[in-house]
Design goal:
Helix content: 10-25%
Radius of gyration: 17 Å
Bound molecules: zinc ion
Largest sheet: 5 strands, mixed
Order of helices and strands: HHEEEHEHEEEE
CATH superfamily: Cupredoxins -  blue copper proteins
Length: 148
């Protein structure tokens, strides 16, 4: 038993926890139209990173759909201004011409989705905004995204 304990201690000490923490982003959205984070930071050493979104609510995707979309802060107003139901749920209701840098699928209550993003499209020190592009949600479901 003691040998097993030592083995496990050694094994887990080799897991690169700091790398895993900064290159994997976990965020959740609820039925009350809220994300559980206002700020996301990704380490500049990441060549890519994974965004995992969990919808902790119970409402369906056509009523309370959530996704995570990242754009430059300077582009946020024009991107959300172009959100329209006619663009369809598959596009996250975003215009196909919008300068979107990263986007997860749109999900409903109880679902989880993730997307792996090439970190090369983000510049260190630039200001980015993440938000949910379901019509009307971006006013409450948004925050800042940065690489540093
Ligand atoms: Zn939403």
């Amino acid at each position: 038993m003691r040998i097993l304990t030592i083995f496990l201690t050694v094994f887990f000490s080799y897991v690169p926890q700091s790398w895993a923490a900064s290159c994997a982003v976990e965020i959740s959205g609820s039925d009350s139209m809220m994300f559980d984070a206002k700020e996301i930071n990704v380490g500049s050493e990441c060549t890519d990173f994974t965004i995992t979104l969990t919808h902790t609510g119970g409402l369906p995707v056509n009523i309370m759909g959530h996704n995570v979309v990242i754009v430059k802060e300077a582009d946020f107003k024009s991107v959300v201004g172009a959100i329209n139901m006619s663009h369809g749920a598959g596009e996250g209701y975003l215009s196909p011409e919008s300068p979107v840098l990263a986007k997860t699928a749109l999900i409903g209550g109880g679902e989880t989705t993730s997307v792996t993003v090439d970190a090369g499209v983000f510049e260190k020190g630039e200001s980015y905004t993440f938000f949910c592009s379901f019509p009307g949600h971006y006013t409450m479901m948004k925050g800042s995204f940065s690489v540093n």
